[in-house]
Amino acid sequence: MTTMYAALLRGINVGGSRKVPMADLRALLKNLGHEDVRTYLQSGQAVFSSGHGDEESLAAELAHGIERHFGFGVDVIVRDHAYLRAVADACPFPAADLEPKQLHVTYFSAPVTPERFGQLDQAAFLPEEFRLGDRALYLYAPDGLGRSKLAEQLARPRFTKGVIATTRNWNTVLKLVELTAPAG
């Protein structure tokens, strides 16, 4: 059975380093045997269909391919349409009432528990807030991610230790749901 997936690459094409041209990424995915390959924006999203592997093996395969082709390592998370749809549907914030720049999702490579964030005084960052979901963290940042003090704290190694974490704005979250949706 063929499934649609999104590959989320962490930390590419930012600040002039770790350049991964999207045409090269598409070619790499096709060379790995995947079909229906498309990319979205320059910041590290690709969608593809595959009839083999699971999310973890597909992520490892792509990360290995990127390292071989480009000469540097990139953290990769792969998620299928059903997961991406479930994350969008489970948003604990009123997404329809917010500007997309105010709402973000951090995808994790593995489940994270509330205890991981237990030492963080959330009240000190209000009106910014976060909530945990299934291998995801929803962040409400009314002034945007670039000005978010809470996002700065959440990106610290003590909160991301042992997992890959990569953040996308709400527009991208929804676009990935759309791009991975089954045809028809």
UniProtKB/TrEMBL annotation:
SUPFAM superfamilies: SP0830-like. Gene3D superfamilies: SP0830-like domains (3.30.70.1280). InterPro entries: DUF1697 (IPR012545). It holds the Pfam family DUF1697. This is DUF1697 domain-containing protein.
